[in-house]
Structure formats: structure tokens, C-alpha cells
Amino acid sequence: MNIIVLGAFGNAGRTIVAEAEKRGHHVLAVGHRKHDDITFSSELIKSTLDLTQTDVTGYDVIIAWTSDTFHIHTATTSHIAQLIMGTNTRYIKVGGTGTMYISPDHTKQLKDWSAFPDNMKPLANALVDSLDRVRSYSNISWTYISPAFNFDINGSITGQYKIAGEEFALDQLIQTTISYADYATAIIDILESNAHIRERIMIYR
To answer: Could you give the angle at the alpha carbon of 97 between the alpha carbons of 19 and 89, nearest 5°?
Structure first.
């Protein structure tokens, strides 16, 4: 497959690029600024909101990693959707665990939990907005994938993971964990199997 990874210079982005290339896929690593200490075999330095149809033509998948610039999440979703409408390109949006539902009637999300860190709420709210936006598109192939509550940058690769839907009991959810490496494995597995089209899921172990 030909894959674009947005936010490729971040830790998780680099892990996803490495996993995809290890399996023989061609990856275009996109970042809004150059990092002199990081080199990819194919890269594009450009803001995601400046990407054009020419930039994405010929690619099978676009994976959008998270950003600390809150409005970018929803704006990127809208922009990418406009670029790929009428094509077979798939859109993978990496979300946050704060968007997971913790009530059976789907009225309460993890971000509403009384002990949810205050400093993480603005990002969680932005990710909820991006989830709502991506759900609104029935004419593109999207998947919204959240990591486990404990997202371990230094965790080893085991090749083991589970896939959950969008509802999880609170006491169990806050115990979930996944390493960046296993998360990347899961994403590429999902792409290769063409699974979970127009679904939001969580990866955990």
C-alpha cells in the first residue's frame, strides 16, 4: 500500500512509519516542520491544512496522528475528507481515550470522569469534536482509533493486542495499556485486513 502519515515526526508517527515500511509499504512522512535529526525515505514538509489533491493522489491510506494544536484535529478531518471524497483512499484518525464512552447510554465519556486530568480536558474536547466530525462523513472510508488509557512510549513490542468498541467500563478502562509499538502493529494490521470501516475502536492489551 501507499500510505501517508501526518504528524510523522512525533514519537508515535515515527513508530507507525517504521512498522509500515518494515512490512514493505511505501510511506510518505508528512510534518509541518523539518527535524534535522530525523530522516525518512520519503517525506513532505507541509502543513496538513495546505495539502492538495495532487499531494494525496495515488495513496491508499492517510493516517492522521494527534496534535497539541487543538483546532487542527477537526479542521484536518474536514480538509482530508474534502480531498478524498470520490476516491478509494481510506482515512485513519488517531483519537484519544477521553472520547471513549463509560455509560451504556453513551451520554458520558471518559473526559467527563471526575478524576480526568484538568490539563487534558481541552485536548479531549478537541478530539470529541473531531470524532463527531468524522462520523458525519458517510461517503469516505474512515476509522477512528483510540489507544488504551495508559499509552506507553517505552513499552516493548509484543505483537499482542485487543480491539474494543467505543464503550468500556470505567474501572476497566483506566487499567488498559498499550505500547506505541503494539499500537502501530494494530493500525497496520487493520489497514491490511481492510477492517473496521466507518467504526471507532480502541486498541489495548
So the answer is: 50
